[in-house]
Specification:
Helix content is 4%, strand content 54%. It starts with a strand and ends with a strand. The chain has a domain of 171 residues. It is mainly beta.
Length: 471
């Protein structure tokens, strides 16, 4: 074990300990130990695995702190892995020198406006555990190429950039679990211009990753799009992932979302998809889930509340399954906020079943910091093809329960569309607007509409209504 104090590090928060710690990395036995103390460094600690061989940096159970007083990452893990995770593609020297570099039990704090936490490049099996990173730009920045990344039991808090940034990266097999990722200005987990496969985000608390806590220092950044989990494929593609068993919530921001996935557009094969989103709690953002140009998403078993523009907005997407979920509001504020519903636009192959969605009592926004939205219905299907809606409860919609606008091939069966409020605000239960052809509404209960249960436009007069209970 290479104790950095044996190499001359002071750990008093004043002296520049960079040279001593770098010496321990370059010339020690591979297990670099930082005892309790505050180790100020002025430049990145480079762990060049091809040169120094297998390395772990450990911080004595979290009692040691690195203070990054210069630009760049406090720790830079660098290796030469250039192929896949297939064992047939590994060079023997990668297993001998480069596998599984570990950072464990350490705090990294920034003391420079361009300080970062950890950068990972070209590494096989990098493992971060019990790491706290705060007051930097980006806590963990993974670039270029990596394989089999593990981030577990970490805290990434109050950073001006991103919590975990997968940026210009080719990566297979990444698990981010059991961590707190919060108050990072540009997003909790952000993926841009990358080729990603096999991504699991599970068991985390991801919250408040927007500009609100930084407004004094970044007054012009409020309208910058962000997200607790933000995937913008750009020039890449992101597929084969799960987002499961997380709490994901925020404060309202004008371009914010709890989960946002942006593909490469409808003419580019929807290069984000094949994701399961299940068992999460999501709330209090402009969009709780926003999907644009995605393909192959399964969404089930979640509770979504108080999406201030929409709980779920889907645009230009295909092959979407929305199973049993609860879309509601926080009953502690029953009459003061809006659950705000579902809008699906220009999408096809959407199956919705077992969904319960209930609006709040007010029928409009009452939170002063949130702009009033323009909404036609609690559930809106607009310019879509081949949508099925079955076994759903659409409760307390304003001004409509369900709008079907210029859609082809829509079936609505076995649903309850009901206004339960003492002061009923749902004017129409179901409206077919524009030309809606090959359309069926059957075996539904529509109750409490103040004006009429069902309204069909002249262009939708051939929509079939069968065996419904209209009261």
């Amino acid at each position: 074990m290479s104790n950095v104090r044996d190499f001359g590090a002071m750990g008093d928060g004043q002296a520049d300990d960079w040279e001593a710690i770098q010496h321990a990395i370059d010339n020690g036995d591979g297990l670099v130990e930082l005892p309790r103390g505050e180790y100020r460094i002025s430049q990145p600690l480079l762990v060049d695995l091809d040169r120094v061989s297998r390395t772990a940096i450990v911080g004595a159970g979290g009692t040691a702190k690195l203070i990054m007083a210069g630009p760049g990452p406090a720790i830079f893990l660098k290796a030469t892995h250039a192929k896949t995770a297939d064992p047939l593609g590994f060079r023997p020297e990668e297993w001998q020198h480069e596998r599984m570099p570990t950072i464990d039990g350490i705090e990294i704090q920034g003391d420079h406006p361009e300080a970062d936490g950890v950068q990972i490049q070209g590494v096989m099996q990098p493992t971060l555990t019990r790491v706290l990173i705060r007051q930097v730009r980006t806590a963990v920045h993974i670039t270029d190429r990596a394989r089999n990344v593990l981030i577990d039991a970490c805290h990434f808090y109050h950073n001006t950039g991103v919590g975990v940034h997968l940026d210009g990266l080719n990566l297979h097999q990444c698990i981010i679990s059991s961590s707190h990722i919060s108050y990072c200005r540009r997003g909790g987990i952000r993926i841009e211009n990358s080729e990603i496969r096999n991504l699991q985000i599970t068991g985390n608390d991801i919250e408040y990753n927007n500009n609100r806590a930084f407004a004094a220092d970044f007054p012009d950044a409020e309208d910058e799009p962000t997200g607790e989990i933000f995937i913008d494929v750009g020039t890449g593609s992101v597929r084969e992932g799960t987002i499961c068993s997380n709490t994901i919530q925020a404060t309202y921001s004008s371009q914010g979302a709890n989960i946002r996935m942006i593909g490469a557009g409808p003419d580019a094969n929807h290069r984000v998809g094949m994701f399961c989103i299940t068992g999460n709690l999501l709330g209090n953002q402009r969009y709780n889930i926003h999907l644009n140009s995605v393909w192959g998403i399964s969404l089930s078993g979640n509770y979504l509340y108080s999406g201030h523009s929409r709980n779920l907005q889907i645009e230009n997407s295909r092959n979407i399954v929305i199973g049993p979920n609860t879309f509601g509001h926080n009953p502690d504020y029953n009459d003061k906020e809006l659950a705000t519903g579902v809008r699906i636009l220009k999408s096809e192959g959407v199956a919705i079943s077992g969904l319960q969605i209930q609006d709040a009592q007010a029928g409009k926004h009452t939170l002063p910091e949130v702009p009033q939205i323009q909404r036609d219905a609690l559930v809106e299907l607009v310019e879509c093809r081949n949508v099925s809606l079955s076994g759903c409860q659409i409760l307390d919609g304003t001004p409509l329960g369900l709008l079907v606008d210029t859609c082809h091939g829509t079936t609505i069966t076995g649903c309850q569309i009901v206004d339960q409020r003492k002061e009923q605000k749902m004017a129409i239960g179901v409206e077919f607007r524009g030309q809606c052809d090959h359309t069926l509404l059957a075996n539904c209960l529509i109750q409490g509409a103040a004006t009429q249960p069902v309204l069909k436009s002249e262009e939708s007069k051939d929509a079939v209504l069968e065996s419904n209970v209209l009261t």
